[in-house]
Design a protein that fits this description.
By secondary structure, the chain is mostly beta strands. It folds into 2 domains: about 130 residues, Jelly Rolls (Sandwich), CATH 2.60.120; about 100 residues, no CATH class. About 15% of the residues lie in helices and about 40% in strands. It is built from 3 helices and 20 strands. The strands form 6 sheets. Strands 1, 3, 17, 18 and 20 form a 5-stranded antiparallel sheet that branches. The chain has a 4-stranded antiparallel sheet with strand order 2-19-13-16, with no helix packed on it. Strand 6 and strand 7 form a beta hairpin.
Length: about 260
């Protein structure tokens, strides 16, 4: 039977183990890319006898990822019932429907496809806030061709079709926000589950600012996930959309700070 002295010694050892300082430190990664590979020299050596975990502390960048790019920036129209066609390619950027309409109408005016007498545009695109769809209005003799693969129809909610004169409401709701979630991943943490599949997502959020503004994300409650390595020679950090695709920050700086601690 265990003696009283042995019990006291075991209790004191447990108290000492639980009260001794636990190691922890911050890791900062920063680059003009959403895929950051950081190499450490010397290596980060963790005690193999202990367990460690890591959480995202803060993230800073700019809301610069575009909803219009080379994959969906084509607007093709005809001013003469389809005899000739004009293509307008919208520059890469972050656009609302009003911005898209404004750019297209300026381009049409430059092409002299504009009613100077009545000061009216021949084609207009407007949002319908009640149905969450977009409305395309086409003047007489004009046509809008949404059949090209990189057509802007995918943003506006229209089918792959040629639209004639008249009032047309999109068949689907607009997809002006093609990014619904931002995810931060790290290859030194254990697997997490997203929609039933495993991954290494350490944090997920959506910015509370609009396009062009600075994103400063500071979690209210830190969520720690287990670190799988005891010798860290490198770490890859990614910022992706909800589908795991790297975001295009168009050259803006991305800074992320992690906290790694002993469990």
């Amino acid at each position: 039977m265990e003696s009283t002295l042995e019990k006291i010694a075991a209790t004191m050892e447990k108290v000492e183990r639980n009260t001794e300082p636990r190691s922890s430190f911050y890791i900062l990664v920063s680059e003009k890319s959403t895929k950051i590979r950081t190499r450490y020299n010397p290596l980060i050596e963790l005690d193999a006898r202990k367990k460690y975990e890591m959480a995202l502390v803060n993230l800073e960048t700019y809301y610069s990822f575009p909803n219009i790019s080379a994959t969906n920036n084509n607007f093709r129209y005809s001013p003469d019932e389809g005899d000739t066609w004009v293509v307008v390619n919208i520059p890469e950027g972050c656009y609302e429907i009003a911005d898209i309409n404004g750019y297209l109408q300026r381009a049409m005016k430059d092409n002299e496809h504009y009613d100077v007498v009545n000061q009216e545009y021949r084609i207009s695109i407007e949002p319908n806030s009640n149905t969450l769809k977009s409305v395309l209005t086409v003047a007489r003799d004009y046509r809008v061709d949404f059949t090209p693969i990189n057509s802007i129809r995918s943003v506006l909610g229209f089918k792959r079709w040629v639209y004639n004169e008249g009032y047309h409401e999109s068949e689907d709701i607009v997809n002006i926000m093609n990014v619904s979630s931002l995810r931060v991943t790290s290859d030194i943490i254990g697997a997490s589950y997203t929609n039933g599949t495993t991954g290494n997502v350490i944090y997920s959020f959506f910015p509370n600012v609009g396009p062009g503004y600075k994103i400063i994300e500071v979690p209210t409650n830190l969520i720690y996930l287990p670190v799988t390595l005891d010798r860290i020679s490198s770490m890859e950090t990614r910022l992706t959309d909800q589908n795991g695709n790297l975001l295009n920050l168009r050259g803006e700086e991305l800074s992320i700070r992690f906290h790694l601690r002993e469990v």
